[in-house]
Amino acid sequence: MLDEAFVRAQFPAFSEPALHGQALFENAGGSYPCQQVVDRLSRFYTERKVQPYYGFSASRLGGEEMDEARARLAGYLGVATDELSFGPSTTQNTYVLAQAFSAMLSPGDVVIVTNQDHEANSGPWRRLIRAGIEIREWQVDPASGHLDLAQLSDLMDEKVRLVCFPHCSNVVGEINPVTDIVDLVHAAGAVCCVDGVSYAPHGLPNVARLGADIYLFSTYKTYGPHQGVMVVRRSLAERLPNQGHEFNGGSLTKKFTPAGPDHAQVAACAGIADYFDTLADEYGFGGLDAATRGEHLHDLFREREKVLLRPLLDYFSSRNDVRLLGPGDAELRAPTIAIASAEPGAVVAGKLAEDGIMAGDGDFYAGRVIRAMGEDPDRGLLRLSFVHYTSEQEIQQLLSALERHL
Prior knowledge:
The structure is a single chain. By secondary structure, the chain is an alpha/beta fold. The protein contains 15 helices and twelve strands. It has a seven-stranded mixed sheet, with helices on both faces. A five-stranded mixed sheet has the order 1-11-12-10-9. The longest helix is centred in the C-terminal third of the chain and has 28 residues, at 290-317.
């Protein structure tokens, strides 16, 4: 079990006077950065803020730190270093990948998307219809928000080239069986793009074990700076056309990044790996390879979060005046809870803020699934989301505030 005090000591926000008494329950929108990331970002801006990869010291060190970030995160994800690229955001990365696919696919080819996704892994692919690509929608069950694998099987045929789906919805919260989905997709001769933005904060997955051809997530939700990470497995990356400068077409780490990288933020992403290494050392498995360390940390994060999540799910299941979107079992979902209640989400979130609860409200760029489940995205939901650094006291603070205001 994670040591709450040790974990929270790694995050400067928890000793910041301006945040005293404020409990963050909108981690799905962005987590606090760990101290290791803050230190690396500060060092880069003060000591390395020059064009990287030249021979002089500041430039050479800056480039080395950028390369280090890529290599170490790739290691934790269980993939090769040249299979990982950085971009300004996951949304931007997905648009670039959709543009690459549009040049490789032919009219009449099929792309499958879901209506459970955040718009980032739905909208860019849906626009391929302009290139003559057929778009099919894998739809959720309107009562539960669940994606049924049998329905995907019914959508598959010899025309399908790509299937795009979330590891975990940022509203429904259910953890989808990625490996099973990937196996079905691959058996049909297609490839898959997995949006991991709402799952990666709860433990980086071993992408090689999942079998995903593309895996996307955002480092500002995994304790780091505002960057998007895209893993594109080599066999697919080599087939996709270059989206970068002409002279970068031979580099897998550059061909999907049309703009130049944000040097400082890329370098600071190594701080995420520093944090993970700190935890691995603390819990006695620091000597293992990075992918295995990552799997152990994933399990520690998930066990911690399930303990914190159960009393919240029990609370909502005891009420008949609110609707919890997604499963009520902590084993089946990430700790991202969207609630429809008698009042609009913004009203409830405003009341909770009076008691120091920082909660989200709105549609969270997931209007398709909200509408599919019979709720009104314009009216807005209340969203409560946390990660492994959330304290038991903060959970009690939230429960007390909900009891007073919901």
